[in-house]
Structures are given as C-alpha cells and as structure tokens.
Amino acid sequence: MRVERQKRKKIDKDTEIIIRNNSHGMFEAPGMDSNIFLEKQNDEESVTFGELRKLRKFLEKMDIVIAEVNSEDFTLYDVVTALRLKVYDDYFKYVLGEDEEEFESIDYISPEAFEEFIIDCDQDEFAKVLESKLKNQVIETSVNLYKEHRLADYTKMTLIRKTRPYEEQSEFWNDIDETINIK
Fold first, then answer.
1. DSSP string across 157-169
2. 39, 110 in Cβ contact below 8 A?
3. What is the per-residue pLDDT across 122-134, written as a single tens digit (0 to 9) for each?
4. Residue 44 CA to chain centroid, in angstroms?
C-alpha cells in the first residue's frame, strides 16, 4: 500500500527548532547569524528555521539532528519535509521502528535512540540499516560504542568491517583498538 505524502508546508523562517549534536565530539558552525557551538554529543541549541536551512549538509550527514520543533503550527516531520531530508525517513523507519504512516506523528527525537537501536537490533536489521542513508552515522556511532566497551557483537562488527575497502578490512578493528590502547 502506498502512503500519501503530505505536501511540503511553507515554514516561517522564525520558527524555533531545537537541534542536537549527534557527532561524537564537538560541532561548530561559524558564519551563521549566530555562531553555533555544541561542545559535546547531545548538547542542544535553539535555532530558527532560517538558520536551520543553512545547516542542511550537517543534517543530511546527521552530525546534528532536529530534536524537536517549538511550534503549534509545524511538526518535526513538516520541517524534515520542507528541507527534503530523506535520511530522516530511514531514521524513522529503522531506528524508531515507525511505519511511514506514523512519520508525521513523531514530535521528538531522543538522544539515546540511535545508540539503543545499534545495541539492541538484530543482525538483519543492522545489515539493512548499513545499506541505508544512515550507513556512515551507524558506523561512526558503532565505533564510538565499541570504544566505550558498549558494543562487542561480533556479527555487527563483521558487517561494519565488510563495508570498508577490501585492503582495510582485516585491520579495521585492530586500528581502532590501537587508538584506545586496549592492547
């Protein structure tokens, strides 16, 4: 069954939106109307929709995420649709486990959702998400979880290793071990 997509709404440029640092370190976007500096993962900042449009490339890579929209007139999905952020469709589908019909009802993105998905999903779900637009963020988050000793699933680690160029596959996790002095 095909779901009827809502039409993109024209969102007021002054609509307040909360963004969250989803990178595994500092996020900085100088040169905006106001400089955005998020010191660590999960730090939040309020921006306008006008400012958010300038951050689209970071939203596409999921270095930052739209956490919520402070408006009675617009939903999180309205903002995602207005910015044409297709990566969020994969996020809602795989990470939040929502059917396409439910995307419009999502009003908040939890900071823990991505990590919980990676830790709790089965190998088939993990393989599917590695084929999605979320691939790079899944790999980055998985490596971070591994460094924190929160991911030790051999199958998931093997699936990640197989995404690397052939000549890098055999040493991928060993190189990471060396950076965190596990050996």
1. HHHHHTTS-HHHH
2. no
3. 999 999 999 999 9
4. 14
